[in-house]
Amino acid sequence: MWKIGGKKLKSRLMLGSSLYPSLEIMKKSIKESKTEIITVSLRRQKKENQVFWNILKKINCIILPNTSGCFSIKETILIAKMAREIFETNYIKLEIIGDDYNLQPNPFLLLKATEKLISMNFIVFPFCTDDLVLCNHLVNLGCDILMPWGSPIGSGKGILNTESLKTLRKRFPEINLIIDAGIGKPSHAMQAMELGYDGLLINSAIALSHNPIKMAKSFSLAVKSGRMAYKAGFMPERSFASPSTPILGTPFWRKNKK
């Protein structure tokens, strides 16, 4: 059990709701993942809108609206207000893209939008890079949740800068840190959780897999396993070999002659 945004949850895996082959596969994948938070965008294709919303209403999950596709503060604030009215929640996953090639968030606009949204009583889940200075500013503005990327959105490259993410964990021990973007395999998810991160948001890695339903279950198990391993504590690394079986008292054992 953990707490984020004032809610107590069992699952540390959050899921996106786009790119699935069909709405039925999306629904089954969400069920297999055991997730309790689903992120959604207001920008859905018109033909599937009503069916999509009806499915979400029947799924017993917390809805985390996002501002995906926004490039300005004005547009972001508008989407956030609309999302609050539609979903009746103060949660907002804040995304402001600064570059349309690698989809990196704009750090300058992100800070301004975060400050504005917090003043409007939103609970902000900011999508950001792993930059320590940026994250420190977000925390100082009042964020108790940070969502740094592991690598660019949809790249599937996994965690590219382990040391930066370790630094964030060390500097912000009381902040909920969620890896958002770049995770491509369950092994990547385990690595993130083994770093001590509190959770993950996955979309493309599940939705674009050959079997999203099975992949959703695989990620669910990976997140649980990674968290369990982190809590268990890892053996210290050594720069030399160390036998697991004691050699003292072993028959016929002798030191190598020099």
What this model shows, in words?
There is one protein chain. This protein has about 260 residues and is an alpha/beta fold. The protein is built from nine helices and ten strands. The chain is globular and about 80 Å long. Helix 3 (about 75-85) packs across helix 4. The strands form two sheets. The chain has an eight-stranded parallel beta sheet with strand order 5-4-3-10-9-8-7-6. A two-stranded antiparallel ribbon has the order 1-2. The chain starts with a strand and ends in a 26-residue tail after the last helix.
Q: Helices and strands in order, then pairings?
A:
Blueprint: E1 2-4, E2 7-9, E3 13-16, H1 23-33, E4 37-41, H2 49-58, E5 62-66, H3 73-87, E6 91-94, H4 107-119, E7 123-128, H5 132-141, E8 145-148, H6 162-171, E9 176-180, H7 186-194, E10 199-202, H8 204-207, H9 212-232
Parallel strand pairs: 3-4, 3-10, 4-5, 6-7, 7-8, 8-9, 9-10
Antiparallel strand pairs: 1-2
In a nutshell, what does this entry contain?
With 258 residues, this protein is an alpha/beta fold. The chain has 9 helices and 10 strands. The strands form 2 sheets. The protein has an 8-stranded parallel sheet. Strands 1-2 form a two-stranded antiparallel ribbon.
